[in-house]
Amino acid sequence: MTQIFPDRFPKPLAALLLSIALASCVRETNIPVASVAPPPSVPLPVRAPPPAPPRPVSAPAALAANVAMLVRDFDGRVGVAVRSIDQGWTVDSNGDQRLPQQSVSKLWVAMTVLDLRDAGRLRLDDAVTVRREDLTLFHQPIAALVKGQDGYQTTVGELLQRALTMSDNTANDRLLRFVGGPSAVRDFLQRKGLDNIRFGPGERLLQAQTAGLTWKSDFALGNAFTRARAKLPTLDRIAAFERYISDPPDGAAPVAIANALARLKRGDLLSKVSSDYLIGTMESSRTGKQRMRGAVPPGWSFGHKTGTGQDLGGRTAGYNDVGLLIAPDGKSYAIAVMIGDTPKSIPARQALMQAVVASVVANHG
Asked: Taking every annotated instance into account, which residue ranges of this chain make up the domain Beta-lactamase class A catalytic (predicted)?
């Protein structure tokens, strides 16, 4: 028999080790193993199908029909757009046609200012001086405050308020130069994806071109611009007028403006602070009380910007109102009514604008 342990171990210890080794040689198969039942079958979880996308909400048919009728029956180049900010639908008639903005374009200057404030590049209380060489033409109430060599000491915020609530041309053009000129506003429009909205060369150059004149600084004083315009041959004035309304350098489509206002209300263009500030300023506007505002019922809020162009032979190149209409339940609409060229009277133009608002209110729900 082969020794498991050599003789070098003492006999008692060798015996003990031998017994342990023999015990460990017992095959594990000799040990009874309890049978293990297979785990119960568990049904795989059934995943719920993804939720169906929300069904698009259709615009009120009565509103669409009424807007189409109002535009069709109006004598002149007209575009109207209404966008529901909450439900996403749009009603328009000639809504993609570029029409003269005139002072509606002050909105884009204001947005550029507030975008720079959001970026920390300016403050509304930054000081600005308005001097005689900054004066423009037509409506500029701030001109009465510009005296002597020192001019008028003001702020960015005051200029913005004057430009939007009083449609002050000099306040707007001074802001425009403060932020870097027309190229800065165009850059803002491009960065924010505000397509089909042009920004012109500024108030002085735009109005001079529309009249068929080349801008001179003397035009800002008294009635110099009006006198120079009156001296032009009639055919030259008509040609310049027609060039402007056919392809306005400040042209914008009503749908594009309504979409921009909707994005402003949603906070897509500016910070919440700046969005609220701009909308609040628009709501305090003092211009165009008988345009769209004339049909806003009690309990509704309305903030807007008007625009009015030059007259020639009973025609007006640009008579506009664009704004945000907010119902008592909080639902809101962006509306743009733009008259690019019309011989209709001012009361008739205002009636058109009020009819659009009245139709929105009647179909609200």
From this structure: 79-338
pTM here? 0.84
Helices (H), the chain: 11-24, 61-72, 106-118, 156-165, 169-179, 182-191, 203-211, 224-230, 234-246, 254-266, 272-283, 346-362
Question: Tokens representing 137?
Answer: 């033409």
Partnered with residue 80 across adjacent β-strands are 93, 337
Q: Which amino acid is at 192?
A: K
All structural domains of the chain with their residue ranges: 61-362
- What is the CATH topology of the domain spanning 61-362? Beta-lactamase (3.40.710)
Helix or strand holding residue 252 (H, E)? strand 251-252
pLDDT digits (tens, 9 = 90+) for 90-149: 999 999 999 999 999 999 999 999 999 999 999 999 999 999 999 999 999 999 999 988
Report angle CA 142, 212, 251 to the nearest 5 degrees: 70
The two structure tokens encoding residue 348: 């008739």
